[in-house]
Amino acid sequence: MSGGREDKDDLVERLLGGDQRALARVISKIEDRSPGYRELVSRLHRHTGNAEVIGMTGAPGSGKSTLVDKMAEMYRERGETVGVIAIDPSSPFTGGAVLGDRIRMASNVGDMDVFFRSMSARGTLGGLSTATTDAVRALDAFGKDRIIIETVGAGQNEVDIVRTADTVAVLVPPGSGDAIQTLKAGILEIADVFVVNKADREGANRTVKELREMVGDLPSMPTGHHGADEMEMFSDETTEDEDDSEDDWTPPVIETVAKTGEGVEGFLEEVGRHRSWLVESGEIEEQARERYAAEIRTLLRQDTADIVQDEIDARGGIDEYAERVLRKETDPYAVVAEILEPIEECVREKPEGRDG
Amino acid sequence: MSTENTGNDQRTIRCMVAKVGLDGHDRGARVVARAFRDAGFEVIYSGLHKAPDEIVQAAVQEDVDVLGISILSGAHNTLVPKIIDGLEEYGAKDDTLVLVGGVIPKEDREGLKEEDVAAIFGPGTPIDETIDFIRENVPER
């Protein structure tokens, strides 16, 4: 009908061929859940698995965007391509959002090998983590070496999002010891690396110390200066020294000053070290399996919710039922049983079909 | 609740509000950005002093429906065509609605429109007029 709708094959082909615009459009379709987006993602899936995905989370003002900018710059200096997905909350009232993280990507302007995309929460619960996972797939299939997901660390939604990453870094601003106490337990648990950014500020040492105590880290963390080769040697060494380092990962605490770039290299080394640990311990596949299982569950929940919604609509909408419950003609449990009955019926009949 | 099949009619409109060149006044651009947000659009604000290349990169990668360029410096006749050429290079020209806001003399308006600027909104334009224009003219995809 409209001339603007691309042929799906063409869009996937163009994305795989390195067309920026096709990548941008695929992500839009994912965000909009526009008709046919699932097929697109399905077709991209087998081209994925090469990117290393890093999740960055932390309170507003902890300097995420600036650090992400410096990370991207350093990866680019190594000749690696970078994709960034920056997630901002949207207004629950209008659905509108001002997506401001892009302003801080000052080091990579004009470099098309850094693909930066802003996404907003768009209100749908659980929908954002699905969209993020799919957008990461698109960037992965496009051939990005590194993908960074950046999001504010507040609430389960965000936790779900950063979980789509292989390595999760949690930024903690220096200063009052309260900072750590106020970190949500859920956020602390998902951290693979802690970053005390703005480490030139007062209180940074204390924050680092407190974090190290919390993760039970010993103060003998080796400091800086080793290249990639030496790093591998280093991880071999630790395997010899400590028997359990194979199965255990203790989140390191890193200090950075993202604004000047100080400490960012050390941070990337830790990210790399975590990656090596994931691969060597086999954790990376375990993680992927868990992620796929979670994804299948989420999709099933969404889709069954849609089926149920259709059924409710077909029966005249939920308001009708609510009204009847209000008038004590029925009760919520009875309503649910009534609506689900035909669906359950179908499921009960299905196993025979499946076996035969 | 229903997430799939909401269809294109409810597609969230994505806009970029861009400040290009040397002009350092962005109060107007910020007001417009906020108004767009309140209208339910997703707005990407470019920040000040951007080069045309940077605007193009952002507009292409963010896949915005609308690119609103704010210029108060008088350099619109060189900057705007550069941006539009850049969009064309990435195949983004046809489905990006390009608007210009700011101080644009009457005699330059025709020229910009020939460059495929969809509309020019000068000082004093009611913001609702701009929002309505976007809603009516947002490219179909």
Q: State the distance separating the first and last CA atoms of chain A.
A: 43 Å
Total DSSP E strands of chain A: 8
Count of helical stretches of chain A: 14
Would you report the number of β strands of chain B?
5
Strands in their spatial order, largest beta sheet of chain A: 4-2-5-1-6-7-8
What are the low-pLDDT stretches of chain A, counting only 5+ consecutive residues below 50?
1-5, 218-245
Q: CATH H-level name of the largest domain in chain A... which superfamily?
A: P-loop containing nucleotide triphosphate hydrolases
Proportion of β residues of chain A?
Answer: 5-15%
The CATH topology of the largest domain in chain A corresponds to Rossmann fold
Biggest interface, which chains? A-B, 44 and 43 residues
C-alpha geometry of chain B: globular
Question: Mind telling me which CATH architecture of the largest domain in chain A this is?
Answer: 3-Layer(aba) Sandwich
The separation of the N and C termini of chain B measures: 24 Å
Q: How many H/I helices of chain B?
A: 5
Detail the poorly predicted runs of chain B.
Answer: 1-9
Structural class of chain A: alpha/beta
**Average pLDDT value of chain B?**
87
Q: Which structural category do the helix and sheet elements of chain B fall into? A: alpha/beta
In short:
Chain A is an alpha/beta fold. Chain A is built from 14 helices and eight strands.
Description of the structure:
The complex is a heterodimer of chains A (356) and B (141). Chain A has 356 residues and is α/β, with parallel strands linked by helices. Chain A has 2 domains: 48-280, P-loop containing nucleotide triphosphate hydrolases (Rossmann fold, 3-Layer(aba) Sandwich), CATH 3.40.50.300; 297-348, no CATH class. In chain A, 53% of the residues lie in helices and 12% in strands. Chain A contains 14 helices and 8 strands. Chain A has a 7-stranded parallel beta sheet with strand order 4-2-5-1-6-7-8, with helices on both faces. In chain A, helix 1 (8-16) packs parallel to helix 3 (37-45) and helix 10 packs across helix 11. In chain B, helix 4 (106-114) links the parallel strand 4 (97-102) and strand 5. Chain B has 141 residues and is of the alpha/beta class. The longest helix of chain B is centred in the middle third of the chain and has 14 residues, at 76-89. In chain B, strands 2-1-3-4-5 form a 5-stranded parallel beta sheet, with helices on both faces. Chain B has helices spanning 27-38, 52-62, 76-89, 106-114, 127-137, and strands spanning 14-19, 42-45, 66-71, 97-102, 119-121. Chain B is 40% helix and 18% strand. The interface between A and B is large, with 44 and 43 residues. Strand 3 (97-99) of chain A pairs parallel with strand 2 (42-45) of chain B, so a sheet runs across the interface.
